[in-house]
Amino acid sequence: MDLIHIPTGKTIYKIDDGAGHALLLAMPEAFKRTEPKPTYNVQPQSTPTTPHWVVRNHPLTGKPELVFATLNQEQRYPGPNCCTPTAESAQEAFTACGHPVPRDVLDKFSALLEDAKGNDPDIINEARFQAQSEQYVREQKERAAAAKLQAIG
Length: 153
Description:
44% of the residues lie in helices and 18% in strands. It contains four helices and six strands; from the N terminus they run E-E-H-E-E-E-E-H-H-H. It has helices spanning 17-26, 87-96, 103-117, 121-152; strands spanning 2-5, 10-12, 31-34, 52-57, 64-69, 74-77. The chain has a three-stranded antiparallel beta sheet with strand order 2-1-3, covered by helices on one side. Strands 4-5-6 form a three-stranded antiparallel beta sheet, with helices on one face. Helix 2 (87-96) packs across helix 3. The longest helix is centred in the last third of the chain and has 32 residues, at 121-152. The radius of gyration is 29 Å and the shape is flat.
């Protein structure tokens, strides 16, 4: 159900039928029912039966992956035993299976791999340790200054 808020003229699209009827009954001077927004017959860019490439971070591990999805299967790179994934090795792996990777997909995968390098756990732990060390030094200086002031006063 679609409603128009009469004082402002704004349309509220796809409101729940129960809530819409409640608003119409409670405030008939504020709301009126309108015709649904027209839907256009638009074809999707790809149908589920067309194979397509997906470049994403793995939903569970957060590591970059390249997926070739067809109607009934997905082929993923890197696999669970891959050490250091690269765009070139992804191209080789998929070409060996008979699915060469388009250049724009490889570029997206390379960019995702580069972004992921900044998320390396060792780098994050080192930065966290550095920040904690700096905070500890600041707190020690503040304690020393407070003790000095307390000794004076």
